[in-house]
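Sharing a chain and its predicted structure for anyone who wants a worked example. Both blocks are below, sequence first, tokens second.
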Amino acid sequence: MGFLRSQIPSNPAPKISPILFLTAIPPWDTFIPMSKTNWNEGVAVLVTTEYRGVFFGYVKSVDADVVYLRDARNCSYWSANTKGFVGLASDGPDSQCRIGPAAPEMELRKVTSIARCSDAAVERWESAPWG
């Protein structure tokens, strides 16, 4: 059984202009692969992975979706006070965070983001709080 003509709305949902939709997508040449980004050796970074890993360390090299770090530490828990993983890059971990000891070298695969750490964040990461 179908709808009666009186049940069909007289004004259908507004249509999205294809021109507006296409202008919202940046051109492909503006996407920069991580391997082409200028990550100088020795820069302190926070790296996240597809497996939800969050790591701090110093860049050794970046190759596509693989990042090589030295003196790398992981964050197994961060408090709400850090305001998410970006807070770990901007302010660093606090006393309630769980930061593991440093490994001399680490290779991270399936990288989803790399964030440069502030000087204040580096200082707090190096103190390695394990609340």
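Comments welcome. The chain has a mean pLDDT of 80.
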